[in-house]
Amino acid sequence: MAAVNDIARDGLVTFLPHRLNRQPVVVGGLTADELWICAGLSAVAGFIAGVPLAWATHSVAMVPTLVVAGVAAGVFGGGGFLRRQKRGRPDTWLYRQLQWRLALRHPLAASWLGGHLLITRSGYWTTRRSRGAAAS
Hints:
The chain has five helices and two strands, in the order ββααααα. By secondary structure, it is mostly helical. Strands 1-2 form a two-stranded antiparallel sheet. The radius of gyration is 24 Å and the shape is flat. The model has no long low-confidence stretch (mean pLDDT 81). It comes from Pigmentiphaga soli. This is TIGR03750 family conjugal transfer protein. The chain crosses the membrane at residues 35-55, 61-82. Keywords: Membrane, Transmembrane, Transmembrane helix.
């Protein structure tokens, strides 16, 4: 039940929870989505490193071994890096940063992921005013 201070005279609730719609922190300061991003990218890196090593050592077990080692290193090492980058920024900073980089580097892929909605123009903005028009 709401406290008396949280209800205005007209019956509306004046208290709005600040962190109600934020994703909870799952592991080491990362949310679930960020954890999946770190784990997925590091698993792909471990797979790419494991295939040539498995071929060189003639042992198929190198691929899953490096995938697991890559995920562990990615979650703890990469997660720490990502946590430092996110500190003091809004909750959606990571996703907008990824969209922005995709929009600049891969415009075709950005159209599928919403990057085409971002403003990517760089340069000077003008109001088309001149000093002579302001004096008259």
